[in-house]
Amino acid sequence: MNHSIVLDRNSFARLQGPRRLRVTHGTVWLTIDHDPEDHVLTHGQVIDLPAGAQALLQALDAPARTCVEQGEAWWQRALRGTPSRVRA
Questions:
Q1: What is the arithmetic mean of pLDDT over 30-56?
Q2: Which uninterrupted H or E stretch holds 6?
Q3: Whole-structure pTM value
Q4: Does an H or E element contain 70, and which?
Q5: b/e per residue, 10-32, with b = 16+ CB within 10 A?
Q6: Backbone angles phi, psi at 5, to 5 degrees
Q7: Contact at 8 Å (CB) between 5 and 58?
Q8: Does the structure show a pLDDT above 60 at 85?
């Protein structure tokens, strides 16, 4: 199941994996618990949140829009040969 998140500038949303997050408009900042790297994503970029991941999403400009999709199982990603979590 897919749903959209629309964020005003500096507003936040919490996400829980497994999910695929696709930015459809604007720029967002994403931090994932226990991940030392933060992510800045712009239009068209995608990130996969692993199962059990807790994440915080913030709009860096307004409005920022994302599409949140149910995440793929690890074996589906392996079959597609997609090792990277962030893709353009």
A1: 94
A2: strand 3-7
A3: 0.75
A4: strand 64-70
A5: eeebebebbbbbbbebbbbbbeb
A6: -125, 125
A7: no
A8: no
Look at residue 88 and give its three-state secondary structure.
Answer: coil
> What backbone phi and psi angles, to 5 degrees, belong to 83?
-80, -25
Q: Is the pLDDT of residue 36 over 90?
A: yes
Which element (helix H / strand E) includes 78?
A: helix 74-80
Longest alpha-carbon distance in the chain:
38
Residue 53 near residue 33, CB atoms below 8 Å: yes
Residue with tokens 């720029």: 27
Give DSSP secondary structure letters for 24-63. Answer: EESEEEEEETT-S-EEEEETT-EEEEPTT-EEEEEESSSS
pLDDT average, residue stretch 41-65: 93
User: Average pLDDT, stretch 18-24?
Assistant: 93
pLDDT at 33: 93
When pLDDT is averaged across residues 31-56 and rounded to a whole number, the result is: 94
